[in-house]
Specification:
The protein has one domain: Peptide deformylase (Peptide Deformylase), CATH 3.90.45.10. The protein has 3 helices and 7 strands, in the order αβββββββαα. Helix content is 26%, strand content 26%. Bound molecules: cobalt (II) ion. Cobalt (II) ion (CO) binds next to helix 2.
């Protein structure tokens, strides 16, 4: 089942840290993960964090193939993830399903290593570089209430906020 993706400025929980998951391998958790992949693919995203569907838990799904048929699937589920190592720098365009229509260059680490739980509650470590590293950093930010706009200059961020506020007033942002 797909869920509605909440948008920046319409849902205050997007800007608050999410809660740890403590129960694993439950039917609810398996269903939530399946729903998140379905919602992400339907929106042509590469990653989705639970707070984006108004579930305030530390869970994110990523597939850098975006579900494209001619690309190899690269599905990652991260629960309570923490970046334990990072190195290098990269700058690339980033967007967010909660801020559709806006893409900006964001500076990130080039490589990261993440420690997380999988859906069974086992500890896993996932290493990624380039796009996968970018996706993991973007999604883990979400779990800490941080959106990619926070990585832009305050000038650029305020400009985007102003545009979004206008769309909210015009009932064009939901
Ligand atoms: Co996002």
């Amino acid at each position: 089942m797909t869920h509605k993706i909440v948008r920046y400025l319409n849902n205050a929980n997007l800007e608050r840290p999410a809660e740890e998951i403590t129960e694993f391998d439950t039917p609810e958790l398996h269903q939530l993960v399946a729903d998140m992949f379905e919602t992400m693919y339907a929106s042509h995203g590469l990653g989705l964090a639970a707070p984006q569907i108004d579930v305030h838990k530390r869970l994110t799904v990523i597939d850098t193939s975006g579900g494209e048929e001619d690309l190899e699937p690269n599905k990652v589920v991260l629960i309570n993830p923490v970046i334990i190592h990072s190195e290098g720098k990269q700058t690339g365009e980033e967007g967010c399903l909660s801020i559709p229509g806006f893409r900006e260059p964001v500076r990130r680490h080039k490589r990261v290593k993440v420690r997380a739980h999988n859906v069974m509650g086992e500890i896993i470590e996932v290493e990624g570089e380039d796009l996968m590293a970018r996706a993991m950093q973007h999604e883990i930010d979400h779990l800490n209430g941080i959106l990619f706009l926070q990585h832009l200059s305050s000038l650029k961020r305020e400009l985007i906020k102003r545009k979004i506020r206008k769309m909210i007033q015009a009932d064009d942002w939901d």
